[in-house]
Write a structure and sequence with these properties.
34% helix, isomerase, binds 5-O-phosphono-D-xylulose, globular, alpha/beta, Aldolase_TIM
């Protein structure tokens, strides 16, 4: 599968987002990964739909809004209106029982498809695949977190690699891995079956983003 790279704008210069989006595009990015955090689901607050809408005006790259928020079902419409092409929501944010989570996930997926936004389901490092198995026929993008969500610049959790391989055995769609991606962990993730890589620190702090993207794609 072709490897695609989504620079995570959490590590970008927030005072110059238009320029950062342009820099990512020129460096060969395939999509922009936008981390939305609410201070409840994760212990950090980042950006809302207004910033995604502003970013939308500056780039034609697909925008993936990764909702790390409680009650994501309440925010689907504003993030869709802001111009997100892909919206991911966390399975852990949808309730206490597996049944309740799946029920809510199905409704969110239906709503997203109806408005032509690509749905993706995200799961934390400690969340088992069993929790999303019932959704794999409904989505074609799964986001596997390789750090505990909340902050950029953390170390890749190698314990998620078997989960990526297991997922690849049962799922032919896109598998995005996010958190602690660098040239070494990118290779581990791809070897395990990932084809989409979100990377913040490694790309935005690189001396040359184009070279860094090439290294992640392993086509130097
Ligand atoms: O969602 C998250 C963190 O919660 C990620 O998207 C990070 O923003 C990735 O940053 P790096 O680990 O690549 O610096």
């Amino acid at each position: 599968m072709k490897i695609k790279i989504g620079p995570s704008i959490l590590a970008a210069d927030f005072a110059n987002l238009a320029q950062e989006a342009r820099r990512a595009k020129e460096a060969g990015a395939d999509f922009l990964h936008v981390d939305v955090m609410d201070g409840h689901f994760v212990p950090n607050i980042t950006i809302g739909p207004a910033v995604v809408a502003a970013l939308r005006k500056t780039t034609d790259l697909p925008i993936h809004s990764h909702l790390m928020i409680e009650a994501p079902e309440d925010y689907i419409a504003p993030f869709a209106r802001s111009g997100s092409d892909i919206i991911s929501f966390h399975i852990e944010a949808l309730g206490k029982t597996r049944h309740a989570r799946l029920k809510k996930a199905h409704l969110i997926i239906q709503e997203l498809k109806k408005i032509n936004v690509r749905p993706a389901v995200a799961l934390n490092p400690s969340t088992p695949l069993a929790d999303i198995k019932g959704l794999l026929e409904k989505v074609d993008w799964v986001l596997v977190m390789s750090v505990n969500p909340g902050f950029g610049g953390q170390e890749f959790i190698t314990a998620v690699l078997p989960k990526i391989s297991d997922l690849r055995r049962m799922f032919a769609g896109d598998i995005e891995v996010d958190g602690g991606i660098n040239d070494k962990t990118a290779r581990q993730a791809v070897r395990s079956g990932a084809n989409l890589l979100a990377a913040g620190t490694y790309l935005f702090k690189a001396h040359n983003m184009e070279d860094a993207i090439r290294r992640l794609k392993n086509d130097e």
